[in-house]
Amino acid sequence: MTASGPVHTDIDMPVEIYWCAHCKIPILHKANESDKAHCLLCHEPIQYMCADLRPVFPQERLLLELMWKLEPNSLADKSIWASNSRIYIDGKAKSVTMALYKKQDVVKLREELEKYQPVNRKEPFREYIEKFVKANRKHLSAIVEEAHNFIRSEAGKYPQENIRPPCLYCLDCLNVWLKMSGHCLPFCQPPAIVLCRSF
Fold first, then answer.
1. Residue 183's CB: how many other CB atoms inside 10 A?
2. What is the pTM assigned to this prediction?
Protein backbone atom coordinates (compact mmCIF):
# COMPACT_ATOMS: atom_id res chain seq x y z
CA MET A 1 0.00 0.00 0.00
CA THR A 2 1.25 3.47 -0.87
CA ALA A 3 -0.06 6.97 -0.19
CA SER A 4 -1.76 6.90 -3.56
CA GLY A 5 -3.41 3.50 -3.07
CA PRO A 6 -2.67 -0.23 -3.30
CA VAL A 7 0.37 -1.49 -5.14
CA HIS A 8 -0.55 -3.51 -8.23
CA THR A 9 1.66 -6.28 -9.53
CA ASP A 10 1.99 -7.57 -13.08
CA ILE A 11 -0.58 -10.25 -12.26
CA ASP A 12 -3.22 -7.47 -12.07
CA MET A 13 -2.79 -6.70 -15.77
CA PRO A 14 -5.94 -7.70 -17.72
CA VAL A 15 -5.66 -10.89 -19.74
CA GLU A 16 -6.79 -11.24 -23.33
CA ILE A 17 -7.71 -14.64 -24.70
CA TYR A 18 -6.73 -15.69 -28.20
CA TRP A 19 -7.52 -18.84 -30.18
CA CYS A 20 -4.97 -21.08 -31.85
CA ALA A 21 -6.69 -22.94 -34.68
CA HIS A 22 -3.70 -25.26 -35.01
CA CYS A 23 -3.57 -26.43 -31.36
CA LYS A 24 -7.31 -25.86 -30.81
CA ILE A 25 -6.75 -24.21 -27.44
CA PRO A 26 -7.07 -20.72 -25.95
CA ILE A 27 -3.84 -18.76 -25.51
CA LEU A 28 -3.53 -16.24 -22.67
CA HIS A 29 -1.74 -12.95 -23.20
CA LYS A 30 -1.51 -9.95 -20.90
CA ALA A 31 -3.03 -6.83 -22.43
CA ASN A 32 0.34 -5.01 -22.34
CA GLU A 33 2.33 -7.72 -24.14
CA SER A 34 3.86 -6.56 -27.40
CA ASP A 35 3.76 -9.88 -29.26
CA LYS A 36 0.26 -11.36 -29.14
CA ALA A 37 0.12 -12.59 -32.70
CA HIS A 38 1.42 -16.13 -32.23
CA CYS A 39 0.66 -19.27 -30.24
CA LEU A 40 2.99 -19.87 -27.30
CA LEU A 41 3.14 -23.57 -28.16
CA CYS A 42 3.23 -24.00 -31.95
CA HIS A 43 4.04 -20.35 -32.86
CA GLU A 44 1.28 -20.29 -35.49
CA PRO A 45 -0.82 -17.10 -35.91
CA ILE A 46 -3.68 -16.67 -33.42
CA GLN A 47 -6.85 -14.56 -33.33
CA TYR A 48 -8.49 -12.62 -30.50
CA MET A 49 -11.30 -14.62 -28.90
CA CYS A 50 -12.69 -12.92 -25.76
CA ALA A 51 -11.80 -11.46 -22.38
CA ASP A 52 -12.92 -14.35 -20.15
CA LEU A 53 -13.21 -18.08 -20.70
CA ARG A 54 -13.57 -21.41 -18.94
CA PRO A 55 -13.47 -25.03 -20.08
CA VAL A 56 -16.67 -26.96 -20.73
CA PHE A 57 -16.31 -30.18 -18.77
CA PRO A 58 -17.41 -33.56 -20.19
CA GLN A 59 -20.64 -33.73 -18.15
CA GLU A 60 -21.59 -30.24 -19.32
CA ARG A 61 -20.73 -31.11 -22.91
CA LEU A 62 -22.99 -34.17 -22.68
CA LEU A 63 -25.79 -31.97 -21.34
CA LEU A 64 -25.37 -29.57 -24.26
CA GLU A 65 -25.44 -32.45 -26.75
CA LEU A 66 -28.71 -33.68 -25.28
CA MET A 67 -30.28 -30.20 -25.23
CA TRP A 68 -29.22 -29.62 -28.83
CA LYS A 69 -30.62 -33.04 -29.81
CA LEU A 70 -27.21 -34.30 -30.90
CA GLU A 71 -25.84 -37.81 -30.56
CA PRO A 72 -24.10 -38.32 -27.21
CA ASN A 73 -20.32 -37.95 -27.59
CA SER A 74 -20.73 -36.32 -31.01
CA LEU A 75 -18.78 -33.30 -29.68
CA ALA A 76 -16.36 -35.29 -27.52
CA ASP A 77 -13.40 -34.71 -29.85
CA LYS A 78 -14.01 -30.96 -30.03
CA SER A 79 -12.21 -28.34 -27.96
CA ILE A 80 -15.11 -26.67 -26.13
CA TRP A 81 -14.94 -23.53 -23.97
CA ALA A 82 -17.53 -21.15 -22.52
CA SER A 83 -17.78 -17.40 -22.09
CA ASN A 84 -21.01 -16.14 -20.53
CA SER A 85 -23.84 -17.43 -22.77
CA ARG A 86 -21.53 -18.33 -25.65
CA ILE A 87 -20.06 -21.76 -26.22
CA TYR A 88 -16.94 -21.96 -28.39
CA ILE A 89 -16.64 -25.22 -30.31
CA ASP A 90 -13.22 -25.48 -31.96
CA GLY A 91 -13.08 -21.68 -31.83
CA LYS A 92 -16.52 -21.03 -33.35
CA ALA A 93 -19.09 -19.32 -31.11
CA LYS A 94 -22.59 -20.70 -30.54
CA SER A 95 -25.13 -18.98 -28.29
CA VAL A 96 -26.91 -20.83 -25.50
CA THR A 97 -30.16 -18.95 -24.98
CA MET A 98 -32.56 -18.98 -22.08
CA ALA A 99 -35.19 -20.29 -24.50
CA LEU A 100 -33.12 -23.45 -24.96
CA TYR A 101 -33.20 -24.15 -21.22
CA LYS A 102 -36.89 -23.33 -20.86
CA LYS A 103 -38.04 -25.82 -23.49
CA GLN A 104 -36.23 -28.77 -21.86
CA ASP A 105 -38.09 -31.62 -20.20
CA VAL A 106 -36.02 -31.69 -17.01
CA VAL A 107 -37.09 -35.17 -15.92
CA LYS A 108 -36.32 -36.69 -19.31
CA LEU A 109 -33.05 -34.79 -19.54
CA ARG A 110 -31.93 -36.13 -16.19
CA GLU A 111 -32.79 -39.69 -17.24
CA GLU A 112 -30.77 -39.28 -20.44
CA LEU A 113 -27.80 -37.87 -18.53
CA GLU A 114 -27.82 -40.86 -16.19
CA LYS A 115 -28.20 -43.23 -19.14
CA TYR A 116 -25.26 -41.87 -21.15
CA GLN A 117 -22.93 -40.87 -18.31
CA PRO A 118 -21.18 -44.30 -18.16
CA VAL A 119 -20.13 -43.98 -21.82
CA ASN A 120 -19.38 -40.26 -21.73
CA ARG A 121 -15.92 -39.81 -23.30
CA LYS A 122 -13.44 -37.76 -21.27
CA GLU A 123 -10.03 -38.45 -22.77
CA PRO A 124 -10.09 -35.72 -25.49
CA PHE A 125 -11.04 -33.14 -22.85
CA ARG A 126 -8.06 -34.11 -20.70
CA GLU A 127 -5.75 -33.90 -23.71
CA TYR A 128 -6.93 -30.38 -24.56
CA ILE A 129 -6.55 -29.28 -20.93
CA GLU A 130 -3.02 -30.67 -20.72
CA LYS A 131 -2.12 -28.85 -23.94
CA PHE A 132 -3.72 -25.64 -22.60
CA VAL A 133 -1.70 -25.86 -19.37
CA LYS A 134 1.50 -26.52 -21.31
CA ALA A 135 0.97 -23.58 -23.67
CA ASN A 136 0.02 -21.16 -20.87
CA ARG A 137 2.38 -22.47 -18.18
CA LYS A 138 4.17 -19.14 -17.70
CA HIS A 139 0.94 -17.23 -17.06
CA LEU A 140 -0.54 -19.95 -14.85
CA SER A 141 2.71 -20.22 -12.86
CA ALA A 142 2.57 -16.48 -12.20
CA ILE A 143 -0.97 -16.84 -10.81
CA VAL A 144 0.11 -19.69 -8.54
CA GLU A 145 3.18 -17.81 -7.33
CA GLU A 146 1.08 -14.72 -6.61
CA ALA A 147 -1.34 -16.84 -4.57
CA HIS A 148 1.50 -18.48 -2.64
CA ASN A 149 3.07 -15.11 -1.83
CA PHE A 150 -0.26 -13.82 -0.57
CA ILE A 151 -0.82 -16.91 1.59
CA ARG A 152 2.69 -16.69 3.05
CA SER A 153 2.20 -13.00 3.77
CA GLU A 154 -1.13 -13.57 5.53
CA ALA A 155 0.10 -16.69 7.35
CA GLY A 156 2.98 -14.69 8.81
CA LYS A 157 0.46 -12.68 10.83
CA TYR A 158 -0.59 -15.71 12.90
CA PRO A 159 1.16 -18.13 15.26
CA GLN A 160 2.45 -21.21 13.44
CA GLU A 161 0.43 -23.58 15.62
CA ASN A 162 -2.80 -21.92 14.42
CA ILE A 163 -2.03 -22.58 10.77
CA ARG A 164 -3.20 -25.85 9.26
CA PRO A 165 -3.15 -25.34 5.50
CA PRO A 166 -5.49 -27.77 3.77
CA CYS A 167 -3.75 -30.43 1.72
CA LEU A 168 -6.84 -31.74 -0.03
CA TYR A 169 -6.67 -31.37 -3.78
CA CYS A 170 -8.15 -33.23 -6.69
CA LEU A 171 -5.65 -34.02 -9.43
CA ASP A 172 -8.46 -34.17 -11.99
CA CYS A 173 -9.86 -30.76 -11.08
CA LEU A 174 -7.03 -28.85 -12.74
CA ASN A 175 -5.01 -27.78 -9.71
CA VAL A 176 -2.28 -26.04 -11.65
CA TRP A 177 0.36 -26.42 -8.97
CA LEU A 178 -0.08 -30.18 -8.87
CA LYS A 179 -0.07 -30.34 -12.65
CA MET A 180 3.28 -28.59 -12.79
CA SER A 181 5.13 -29.84 -9.71
CA GLY A 182 3.44 -33.08 -8.67
CA HIS A 183 3.30 -32.12 -5.01
CA CYS A 184 1.41 -29.87 -2.62
CA LEU A 185 2.10 -26.25 -1.69
CA PRO A 186 5.69 -25.71 -0.47
CA PHE A 187 4.69 -25.30 3.17
CA CYS A 188 2.16 -28.17 3.22
CA GLN A 189 3.00 -31.58 4.60
CA PRO A 190 2.26 -34.34 3.73
CA PRO A 191 1.85 -34.17 -0.06
CA ALA A 192 -1.59 -33.56 -1.45
CA ILE A 193 -4.32 -36.18 -1.42
CA VAL A 194 -6.34 -37.10 -4.48
CA LEU A 195 -10.00 -36.55 -3.62
CA CYS A 196 -11.81 -37.55 -6.78
CA ARG A 197 -11.61 -38.50 -10.42
CA SER A 198 -15.09 -37.39 -11.25
CA PHE A 199 -15.02 -36.10 -14.83
1. 14
2. 0.71
